[in-house]
Structures are given as structure tokens and as C-alpha cells.
Design the sequence.
């Protein structure tokens, strides 16, 4: 049985706790139970929830006090709180809303009423998160446009200005070199634009199809798009990914994420270096790894990617400019497959980017 949407139920009355828990468990909600305010706060320190059903009348710490604490903490302030209560006085209802509660369910309640309100507030919470996430991803994309796409167009303008001056003989090697550079800048700009269009389309698509797929096929498909730059830098590729390993993921999102991680590995690996692709299989998970002998990544930048979602760019070993989506967005694409991005590097030489997926 597959469970979804995590709900924390807080009530000092064990009968009420069991009743509400059974109703929601039968509807495949993923529930946790707390018999006091302190226990609820302790659970919330270690786990994340999408909704909290909170009794008001509890000893030591009542529901109002618990709600006040939740709304004062960054990690819990946005979780919707529905009060479960026998109190019907207007002043108490108003107090609950003032403290940040989103609704009241009065005891005794009907099963249908409980399920309807739970579903409504979960839908609102998830919709709000999706809007925030979409806006954040949009801002990332705008930052890429503002930063990366200017570079090839600026260089193209400079090269065209040289040609316009007419001082270069069209039959000379210098003229041919300028045309080659123009073609390269045009290709780079087109690549950035195509990538942006592709990422925007994927991020706008809310219907994710996470299914069991062969890892080898997706890794090879992502690797194929980087072959020309790999050959250009004479980088050695070792593919240790087995042909039959399977995992659960959203195929298009993972392909784009892998393509960008491999592209970054190529970008930051010097000529003659090496990149190794591999997998590690565990009971319930599969890890896809990409290791390189490149310039490494500082811990402060790893923190920016994984924790702060900050976009930044660095020139490659051959002074390659950015044409990738930025690792923070790569991280978001991996999350679309319920995966986790892991980055290891000593900051001096070599990095390993791993994607942990369910199986």
C-alpha cells in the first residue's frame, strides 16, 4: 500500500488520537501521532509534515502555545494547522486564527467533514508550494539568461565589429578564424536558448511519470550529448554502469540532470583527464555516480548548491563559459524523481556527483 502526504496528529486523548489516526490511515495518508505539545515539537525537529491536526485543550502546553511556537520557526511556519477542539467560543476561534491556524474542526466531528477539510487544506498547501517553486525556478532561469546568454552575444558583436571595419582580407587565415569563432559563439548561444526552452517546459509540467527504468540507457543517452566536448579535451571516459540496473525516476528530468552533471565534469576536467560513471546498489536505493579528475569544488560552493539554492558560474579549465542550467536547478530536477544529489570534493582536485534514487 502506497502512502502519501504526511500529517501530524496531536491530541492528549488516546481515543481521539486513535480515531483520527485510523480515519486518515485508511485513506492512505502517512500519519504520525503525538500525545502532547512537547512530543509534537520534538517530532517536528526530525521530520517534515504537510499538515498538522492540533488539539487545543492539552495539559502543560495547550494547542495555542504549540501553534505560536510553530509559526515562529522557519522550518514549521508554513505548515497549515487545523485545530481539533470542543471549544466553540468565538474569542477562542479568533485567537486560533490570529496565531496562524487555517481552520477548526469541532469535536465531535463527522468523518466526511474531517476528510474534506484535510483534503482542502492539503491541496491549498501543495498548490502554494508549487507556485513558490515555480517562481523560484523562474528566477533561476532569468539569472541564467541575464548572466550566461550575454557572453556569447557580446563576443559575437565584437567579432562582427571587426569584420565590419573591413581591415581583414576575406582570403586570410585571420578572417577564417573569425568566422569559426562566430560560428562557435552562435552555437553556444543556441545551446543556451534550447536548454532554457527545454528546462522551462519540464518545470511547467506537473504530471510527473516516475516509473522503473533502466539506468544504463538514460546514462548513455545523457553521455552521448557530451561526446564532442569529451573528444575535444581528450578526456578518458570509463562507464561502469551495469546494463541491467533499474531504479525509479522521471526519465526526462533525470536525463537532463545527468547531461548537465556530465557536461560540468567535462568543463572542469583538464585535457587528458578522466571521468568515471558508476552505480552502487543497496536494498532500496541505487546510487549513480560521476567522478572526475578536475579542479574540485569548494565546500562553500557545495553548500550554495545543496542548501542555499544559489546560482553561480565558474570558467572551465579551457575557459569554457556556462551553458548549463546551474547545479541548483539540476538539484531540483533530481528531486522530481524523488532523488537526492550528493556532492563530494576536497576542493583541490576531483569531484564526485552522485544521484541517489529509489528502486
Sequence:
Amino acid at each position: 500500500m502506497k502512502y502519501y502526504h504526511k500529517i501530524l496528529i496531536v491530541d492528549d486523548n488516546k481515543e481521539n488520537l486513535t480515531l483520527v489516526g485510523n480515519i486518515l490511515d485508511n485513506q492512505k495518508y502517512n500519519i504520525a501521532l503525538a500525545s502532547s505539545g512537547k512530543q509534537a515539537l520534538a517530532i517536528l525537529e526530525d521530520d517534515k509534515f504537510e499538515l498538522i491536526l492540533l488539539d487545543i485543550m492539552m495539559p502543560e502546553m495547550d494547542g495555542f502555545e504549540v501553534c505560536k511556537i510553530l509559526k515562529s520557526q522557519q522550518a514549521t511556519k508554513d505548515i497549515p494547522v487545523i485545530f481539533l477542539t470542543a471549544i466553540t467560543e468565538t474569542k477562542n476561534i479568533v485567537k486560533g486564527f490570529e496565531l496562524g491556524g487555517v481552520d477548526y474542526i469541532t469535536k465531535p466531528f463527522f468523518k466526511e467533514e474531517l476528510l474534506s477539510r484535510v483534503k482542502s487544506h492539503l491541496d491549498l498547501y501543495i498548490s502554494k508550494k508549487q507556485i513558490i517553486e515555480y517562481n523560484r525556478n523562474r528566477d533561476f532561469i532569468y539569472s541564467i539568461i541575464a548572466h550566461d546568454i550575454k557572453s556569447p552575444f557580446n563576443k559575437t558583436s565584437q567579432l562582427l565589429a571587426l569584420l565590419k571595419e573591413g581591415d581583414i582580407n576575406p582570403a586570410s587565415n585571420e578572417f577564417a578564424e573569425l568566422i569559426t569563432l562566430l560560428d562557435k559563439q552562435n552555437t553556444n548561444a543556441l545551446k543556451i536558448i534550447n536548454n532554457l526552452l527545454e528546462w522551462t517546459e519540464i518545470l511547467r509540467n506537473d504530471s510527473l511519470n516516475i516509473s522503473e527504468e533502466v539506468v544504463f540507457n538514460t546514462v548513455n543517452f545523457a553521455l552521448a550529448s557530451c561526446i564532442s566536448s569529451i573528444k575535444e579535451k581528450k578526456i578518458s571516459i570509463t562507464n561502469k554502469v551495469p546494463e541491467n540496473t533499474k531504479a525509479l525516476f522521471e526519465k526526462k528530468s533525470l536525463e537532463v540532470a545527468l547531461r548537465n552533471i556530465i557536461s560540468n565534469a567535462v568543463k572542469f576536467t583538464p585535457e587528458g583527464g578522466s571521468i568515471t560513471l558508476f552505480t552502487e546498489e543497496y536494498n532500496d536505493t541505487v546510487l549513480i555516480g560521476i567522478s572526475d579528475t578536475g579542479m574540485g569544488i569548494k565546500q562553500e560552493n557545495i553548500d550554495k548548491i545543496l542548501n542555499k539554492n544559489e546560482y553561480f558560474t565558474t570558467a572551465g579549465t579551457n575557459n569554457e563559459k556556462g551553458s548549463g542550467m546551474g547545479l541548483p536547478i539540476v538539484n531540483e530536477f533530481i528531486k522530481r524523481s524523488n532523488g537526492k544529489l550528493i556532492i563530494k570534493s576536497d576542493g583541490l582536485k576531483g569531484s564526485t556527483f552522485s544521484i541517489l534514487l529509489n528502486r
